[in-house]
Design brief:
The chain is α+β, with helices and mostly antiparallel strands. Helices cover 32% and strands 20% of the residues. The protein folds into two domains: 115 residues, Pdz3 Domain; 239 residues, 2-enoyl-CoA Hydratase, Chain A, domain 1 (Alpha-Beta Complex), CATH 3.90.226.10. It comes from Epilithonimonas vandammei.
């Protein structure tokens, strides 16, 4: 995969920034913005345990210095956001997020002069499709493939606007996946500012179609008018089990979050769901189990190991779980110092050990520890396992996939996971709100280094044995083509 160089990022992050229109937001004095930049640099450098896992420190320092040089005049919050968002993304860690101030987002939604591309879209692989038309143009463009917008291909656009948010390592599938829905239009605005009109070239239509930009209120009104919106809430059980035939069972595990499972699942706990499911699998002498984590973005630590315990032997799952420091004070010499901290007293003293460099590492035998799981369940499974994955498979969902892939316990179907194969930095995140721009950066503190076999390139997610990408019709009809493909494979092997 082609990687974007630091120089390219530096060029892209300030491209035409002073000639762009982000709306009538008040200017913030350049000196104040430079102080915010200093605090951001300190926060990422001192508190983010995985900041330099993918991007060397000297490269990050150069990027911050260049950004400081670019702030040579007063800027509004969106202009400043365009400069610092790519700096945050240099962490190459999807748990590191940046948020505009709440009042700015509210003003953006209410201001009729701030206008966006009035389409919702989806990327299927690297192909971009219109899902809903919220424009004033009545052309039938839903479900059509977009080839160009204002002369640029979707791939060219993603290369630019994709630097505004982080993804794990060098996993490019996440950049496309995260720009689904209205996120494409929103990030297009964050990068290009207000565009009066868009020339959109659809593959199925000979000439480009002109689409005028619209405000959020107009877009919402058109969505109600142009689309049949089913207002009934569709209930979705986050944990699903079914026996498909005499030899095959299917488990759909959409989250590892204990809170969500307790609130939305009839099983109330993942442990109960797995115990009942694998008891039935044993009772029916099932030979093939399909585990669907294609919608699993993670959740409560330990649940990925609980699921893994039904398939693999126990082993040291993490090489280490590391925190760079327990506490930092960020101080630019003028604004009020900001304190960021990680553990409470008991966890800091009893669960972790202090290293010579001042970092803390988790002990193996206390708390969650470093092992894959605590105790093997009764009804383990030793048959054929198929794991369904996608760019949404992230955090704990990807850690389960990492273990299964490393140990050679499953066949993987779908698309590359969104979480890094070699680990991630997450957990105990702290919000750093910059005092002058009021932009907030969520900085994760725990670096989870996974003990995996070096079967994949550094910076990648788990890659499927069989890559499957839905067509637009399959996507619209909500077909589970990953499951269909798994069943086809099973059928062919019988």
């Amino acid at each position: 995969m082609k990687k974007i160089s630091i120089l390219t990022i530096l060029i892209l992050l300030t491209q035409n920034i002073y000639s762009q229109n982000f709306g009538e937001f008040p200017k913030i004095e350049k000196e104040k913005l430079q102080r915010d930049l200093d605090l951001l640099h300190q926060g990422l450098d001192k508190f983010h345990s995985g900041m330099y896992w993918y991007t060397p420190k000297d490269s990050v320092d150069i990027a911050f210095q260049d950004a400081k040089n670019q702030i040579n005049t007063d800027l509004n919050v969106f202009e400043f956001h365009k400069i610092i968002a790519p700096l945050v993304a240099l962490s190459r860690e999807d748990h590191t997020d940046i948020f505009l101030p709440k009042e700015v987002k509210e003003q953006t939604n209410k201001n009729e002069n701030i206008r966006f591309l009035p389409l919702t879209v989806v990327f299927l692989g690297e192909k971009l499709y219109c899902v809903k038309n919220a424009s004033n143009n009545s052309a039938k463009i839903e479900n059509l493939e977009i080839e160009k917008i204002n002369g640029e291909t979707p791939k060219e656009i993603v290369t630019k606007i994709g630097i505004l948010f982080a993804s794990d390592g060098y996993i490019k599938s996440v950049k496309y996946s995260d720009l689904g829905g209205f996120n494409f239009s929103k990030n297009y605005f964050y990068y290009y500012g207000i565009i009066e009109k868009y020339e959109v070239k659809f593959k199925e239509i000979t000439e480009p179609i002109t689409i005028n930009s619209l405000s959020i209120s107009q877009i919402n009104e058109n969505l109600k008018k142009n689309n049949n919106i089913d207002k009934e809430k569709t209930e979705n059980e986050p944990l699903q089990f079914k026996i498909i035939n005499a030899k095959t069972a299917y488990l759909d595990i959409q989250t590892f979050s204990n809170d969500i499972i307790k609130r939305e699942s009839k099983y109330k706990t993942l442990k109960k769901f797995l115990k009942q499911s694998f008891s039935e699998i044993k009772e029916h002498n099932i030979k093939n189990v399909i585990i669907d984590v294609s919608k699993n973005g993670g959740g409560t630590e330990g649940n990925e190991g609980l699921l893994y315990s039904y398939f693999g032997d126990n082993y040291q799952k993490y090489s280490k779980v590391r925190v760079k420091t327990q506490k930092v004070i960020l101080n630019n010499g003028i604004d009020k110092p900001i304190k960021l901290k990680v553990f409470g007293f008991l966890e800091r003293i009893f669960v972790n050990k202090k290293m010579k460099d001042g970092s803390l590492e988790r002990k193996n035998n206390l708390g969650l520890g470093l092992m894959a799981y605590k105790k093997a369940p009764k009804d383990t499974f030793k048959g054929n396992v198929y794991v369904l994955i996608s760019p949404i498979t992230y955090s704990g969902g990807s850690e389960f996939s990492n273990m299964m892939y490393s140990q050679g316990l499953a066949t993987f179907i779908g698309q590359e996971t969104g979480g890094g194969y070699y680990g991630n930095t997450s957990g105990y995140s702290q919000d750093l709100t910059l005092p002058n721009s009021k932009i907030t950066i969520e900085i994760p503190a725990l670096q989870f280094v996974m003990n995996v076999e070096p079967k994949l390139p550094f910076g990648s997610g788990v890659k499927p044995n069989y890559e499957v990408i839905p067509t637009i019709n399959q996507y619209i009809n909500n077909e589970n083509i990953y499951l269909e493909y798994a069943l086809k494979l099973i059928s062919e092997k019988q």
